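Listing 4. Sequential folding, example run.
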Amino acid sequence: MGRGAREAAAQSRGGRASEASVSPGQTIRAGEAQETGETPAKENHVATGAEQTRAPASPLNRSWLLRHFSLLLRRDRQAQKAGQLFSGLLALNVVFLGGAFICSMIFNNVAITLGDVWILLAALKALALLWLLYYTARTTRRPQAVLHRDPHAGPAWVRGSLVLFGSCSICLNVFRVGYGMSHIRCKSQLELVFPAIEIIFIGIQTWVLWKHSKDCVQIQTNFTRCGLMLTLATNLLLWLLAVTNDSMHHEIETELSALMEKFSGNNTNTCLCLNVTACEVFQKGYLMLYPFSTEYSLICCGVLFVMWKNVGRRLTPHTGSHPGTPPFHLHGAILGPVLGLLVLVAGTCVFVLFQIQASGPAIARQYFTIYYGFHAAALPTMSLACLAGTAIHGLEERELDTLKNPTRSLDVVLLMGAALGQMGISYFSIVAIVATRPHELLNHLILAYSLLLILQHIAQNLFIIEGLHRRPLWEAAPESLAGKWEAEPPRRGSLLELGQDLRQASLAYIHSYSHLNWKRRALKEISLFLILCNITLWMMPAFGIHPEFENGLEKDFYGYRTWFTIVNFGLPLGVFYRMHSVGVLVEVYLGA
């Protein structure tokens, strides 16, 4: 015990001696350092704790925001799909109802007459007109209504065709009103009211679609979708009625035969026109402009469908900024335009000869031979050009454009769907020729024409679709600039330098590709040749040449009513196919 006490006392004395050996200044500095060091230690401890507290909170907040925004986006997509589904079902039910009326009129014209179908269509037109006026006067004028406009929707050629065919449809209904007024003694008032309503409907619809075909509406989306689908269904029913209703054609033929019997001395009970010259003008105008009415309805359906797809669509700045397409230049292309002009001149000569013969009582068989012989020479050339262009597309270095583009998707669907019209007529002609008289020269030409037309549609669709899915040359990223970006990533605050680099690289890229290599030149030659050929093949059926109905072979085989429906179903689609092909071939030419 004593030894332990002595050791403790010695240690305490040593400690006091060591404290006494330290100078007062050092003691003060040590005390200050202790005091000042305590506060930073506490602050560092607090800061470290805060950092430790915030470190797990930042991903938590970020994950909460992601979940919140993804939930909002999911709800928005669900609401958009629900609106599309409801409006689609509305259009489907309207089309089924109108189709049931039209089919009942065809198969049982006693219970359901043409007047009943007109009343139904007049009610649908009135509803569609009310929505079109409301959309123009109220919906589009509200703030934040149209934030984006689709640069790919409603190109110039579509809107031009809309105005052209709409004007022809208005003239068609004017001729119908004139024809009805000349037979007012034996016509009902409904036959005059219905064309007048259709003139108003076509005029207002053409104006609205011309002005708002690029809109991406962001408000009243469900009501806008339903209005667009109602208008689309109305145009579809108008097209279906025009395809199946042959009452006007039958009435004109009956009146012509009655006039012949009257001149021969036989009395008939047919309602005849008092002014024969005026009635002849109305009849010729009606028969010539009849295909334009069906064309107009098809174009309106396409434009309305694109507008329906764009409702509620939000475009990114990159998507919304349409790159400036280059102007239309020949770039030294000679062979394609020359061959195309030769086809156009030859087709115009055949068209004039056929029209002169069509104005007479009957068309000689030699003119049918000239018509089908011209096509038997032009169609194989077009098919070979399309196959060569498709092969050149496979050799190109341009990448495929995989970005979402509703307008391009609709172009492809319309191209494939419209091709079915003329191909369907060709298959019916093949069956009729093989089953009857396949050994005559004219029948051989019709058979060759039908087969070559099917092959040409297939080859041209392949060429156009392949060209539409190639990235245009002016949108391709310069490889030198891409390499520079990979080697030297852009620094902060260097937007001006980046813009200058983009301009220099773009100018260098355009300068280096200002000359055409053989692949680009060949694609441009082929595109120009096909553009002129399709214009020629569009001109003939659009302005009154219908040898499929006038040669009498298929009409005798299938019957008048059946063949009338087949031709009126396929011929407008064929005219639309040629017109649509010209528009998309211009895009292929500019992108080559």
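-- end of first protein; second protein begins --
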Amino acid sequence: MSNQDPISMNDRRSAMNYHKVDQHMTSLFGPSEDDEDNNEQVPRSPFVLTGLPPEPQEGNIEYKLKLIDPNPFRLEHLITQMNWRLQEGQGEALYEIGVEDCGTLSGVSSEDLEASLTTLKKMADRLGASITILYERKLENDRHIVEVLVRKVPDDQHFIDLRVAVLGTVDSGKSSLVGVCTHGELDNGRGRARLNLFRHLHEIQSGRTSSITLEILGFNNLGQSIDYGCCRTANEICDRSTKIITFIDLAGHTKYMKTTLFGLAAHAADFAMLCVDAPSSVVDTTREHFSYARTLDVPVFVVINKIDLCSKTSIQQTITCLTYLLKHGHGSTHLLPFVVRREEDLVKAADMFVEKSICPIFAVSCVTGENIDLLKKFLNILPPRLSSKDQERLSLLPVDFRIDEIYTNNASGAAVVGGTLKSGIIKEGESYLVGPLLDGTFLPAKVTTIHRYRVPRRIVHAGQAASLNLLHVGGSRLRKASGMVLVSSTSNPEACVEFVAEIYLTMHHKNTPIRKGFETTVQIENIRQTVLITEMDKDELHANNQAVVTFRFRNRCEYVAEGSRLIFRSGQQTKGTGRVIKVLPQLKQIT
């Protein structure tokens, strides 16, 4: 497979034939020069703003026809309602002024709009929140519709934070795109923007990412981006921001695929940004990265990069190939592509994206800057993936902190671990258990300090990433391999050597099914290790079939949680996916 992995002609023909009857795509650039010679047009999207879906009962979106001088009782009710919407959106709510509850775009007059915004500002001030007008649309009858973002950072947080994994094949411009977004400077067409992200000399020399790099982009109350163009340090960005986007820049080359998969699974990304190289279109690596994200239940949005190097017709063909991938690229789940062309599309894209019914598509250029601001505005209004109910439920569970980095404090020799809190709440000064060690035991550890984005904190909530300094635990005592966790001292954790999983074989030679004794490398959250199939509920498993198998770790025991999703690979090829359905305690395992 070449670095570019060009899409096969058969796939292109299948995609073209499929879209002769597809009625759900939007022409991104309107009629092109070739349209006169080609009668096949890409149909318009059903999401053109002629109306909105009915107002959702749950979530962070509220429709209001108008808010004009409410009486005190009504005002208190509206404030309570706004507070509930903010809780649903983890500190963010979207108000649609001039829209009826059924979704009809009735609009309001200029005078009523001014009065409604005044009332909305009064409501937000009572809650200590801020409002930002995202978009204003004028209807044909000289009436107005306005989309307003209300943001309030929760009392126990310094800012709202989201993690976005950056996927895509080699040379698709992932690092350049992240560099442009986080440093406020356009690329020169020769990779200048990506130099700020590279960690190793060979990355600079080759121009290709081989490791996992984290970069942040902030937004303030007014929706303005806060980046390294106006700030010198990450601390300053965090201090000036009410929302932080953490980009997890991953490798695109096939020989670094295991690093990419580890970064996506271990760093618990909220969303995935799939970059597509416009000149090369959809390639094999694009499909594989898309499948990884969908298997791990990470919502995906697509960015077509380098559109300055292609004609409108070529880009439209890329969108057609993407549409085929979204509807046929992952089992029975289908996504409806939604090309974001204007600001008025953003709110609907962000709302329905979280519900996983659509896949927003952006077309950008890091050289000309086309649509970069549109992408940033989308990230600004993108709501947290976890609802308030999910956040509350996870906070009540025992602590489960997945460690992806281990360091040693040079001054004290104590261990410093970085990772993501899957469930529970970690507080400074409390004691936990860290492990498993090579023999399967766990060590007591006290969290002395907590840092998030290099800023000291006293508490970590479920879904947040942090670095912890552990007292009484030397960095040399912890194994450097993946799979370490920090758990509640009362949870009585047990490491396992064997576990049962339900797997689905997606890619394998048709004439060579897998059987008992098959070896493969499995990725389960932050665990990556070779496993052996010791039991199977059928004699042999062929491609596109599923089975229940028992896996045995070959090198060391691991802490595995039931319900975890897994991906297994052999060599450079992904073999299949699955889910852990049972963990076998060591006492019940066959020696």
